[in-house]
Amino acid sequence: MAIDLGQINFGQIRRSEHLPARIAAQLAEEISQGRLKPGERLPTEHVLAKTLAVSRSVVREAIAQLRNEGLVETRQGVGAFVSEPSARPIRIKDGELSAPQSFRALFQLRVPLEIEAAGLAAVHHTADDLAKIDDALSHMTGAAKWTEQGIVADLAFHRAVAEATHNEYFALFIGFIAERISLAINAARSRAVLEEIVEVTIAEHVRLRDAIAGRNGVEAREAMRAHLHGAASRIDLSLEQF
């Protein structure tokens, strides 16, 4: 079923912007809002180009971007169709996590993933894995006043733990979430006494590191649980117990 262009809320496209990206963003928004429904066929390149007053090559590049993002699928000789939600990759738009409920939901997802990752890392880590964890911890300890360097080291620590599971999906998902949760660390810096945050945070990471090094899966899981709930409490985020 083809899409009625009259139902699409295309905004005016400014020539100063990268046209394909702008068109792709507008179509992605229509898909996100449900105005372009799964299974519907997009208008042809010719129709879109005429409607938007751009070249067909611009439209073609925009459609290619949507295809790369998993929002549409193209069928040779037929056209482009809105993909089913289950076939789409994880996407979190810029600014989306500024909503407290969205941020809390993502943090909730992080907790069980990282707790299990800590337990698996304790069992499966190699000497190289532990060296990466120790390197990140040393950079955290040496980050004066918990600067940007400390935040980067904190994220590197969690990525190293995820990689030590030797399960690529833990590393993939935790890496994705951790990057977006990093604003929690910035929030904590502004809402509490900085020296106290540094001292407590490092102590939590040291406990976790020692449990992993000792191949104690139970203690590693508990150390990660305590750390994540501590991090949540430092930004006034209440989580259900896991």
From TrEMBL:
Residues 17-85 form the HTH gntR-type domain. Keywords: DNA-binding, Transcription, Transcription regulation. Pfam families: FCD, GntR. SUPFAM superfamilies: GntR ligand-binding domain-like (SSF48008), Winged helix' DNA-binding domain (SSF46785). This is FadR family transcriptional regulator. It comes from Rhizobium rhizophilum.
